[in-house]
Amino acid sequence: MSLIITIFSLVFLTELVSWIGKTVLLDFAWALYCRMFMSVQYTRQRQIKAELLVTKKELLQTSAQDQFAKWAKLRRSVDKGLAELEKLNGELATTKTAFSAKFSSLVWILTTGLQFAIGWWYRKSAVFYLPPNWFGPLTWTLALPFAPPGSVSVGVWQMACRRVIKVGECTVKNIMAVPSEPIAVPVDAGVGPSAEKKS
């Protein structure tokens, strides 16, 4: 793949991630991860919750004074279930936190990190060459920091791609925006500059 398309694709991917939002992507990836690797834990969590609801309902229907032995047994069962549920919830929360850190690192590496790496690796390469004297004395600025004179550097191309994508995003948002109805503001005849002139 040519350098022009590679850089444009990376910038587009970075902007796409920012449009969608990292939290939305994280939630989607976490749901997918849970469905594939953690279905046993979530099945157990649902099972414990269902058992707790049934046991709590039975506990509420049991009199502590009339049926103390049964009430105490149900109470111990509820306490044990709550402790097990709390432990399982803690394990799942720890797993989600670790997953979140790894996912955020992966997203950073695939977007920003790759842009830095490509920018550094191709720092002395020209993305493309401009026709001679096209921008006059400003041509050398497009080659900054290390590209050959008369060319466009990787850094400048990344900035140009990002700007074009952002302008495209704004254009699409403006086209897709639902026009809002103008709000009618009532005008009081006794208030305003014309009312002051009359008095």
Automatic annotation (TrEMBL):
Query: What domain of life does the UniProt record list for this protein's source?
Result: Eukaryota
Bilayer-crossing regions: 103-122, 134-157
Q: Does the keyword NAD apply?
A: no
- UniProt keyword annotations, A-Z: Endoplasmic reticulum, Membrane, Transmembrane, Transmembrane helix, Transport
List the stretches on the Lumenal face of the membrane: 1-3
Key word Membrane present in the record?
yes
Which GO molecular-function terms appear in the entry? protein-membrane adaptor activity
According to its UniProt entry, the protein's GO biological process terms are: tail-anchored membrane protein insertion into ER membrane
- InterPro entries linked to this entry: Get1, Get1_fungi, Helix_hairpin_bin_sf
Provide the membrane topology annotation. Answer: Multi-pass membrane protein
> Might you report a single GO cellular component term?
endoplasmic reticulum membrane
Q: Which residues lie on this side of the membrane: Cytoplasmic?
A: 169-199
Record's subcellular location: Endoplasmic reticulum membrane
Write out the similarity annotation.
Answer: Belongs to the WRB/GET1 family.
Name the UniProt record assigns to this protein: CHD5-like protein-domain-containing protein
**Organism (species):** Boletus edulis BED1
Q: What is the lineage of its organism?
A: Eukaryota, Fungi, Dikarya, Basidiomycota, Agaricomycotina
Gene behind this chain?
GET1
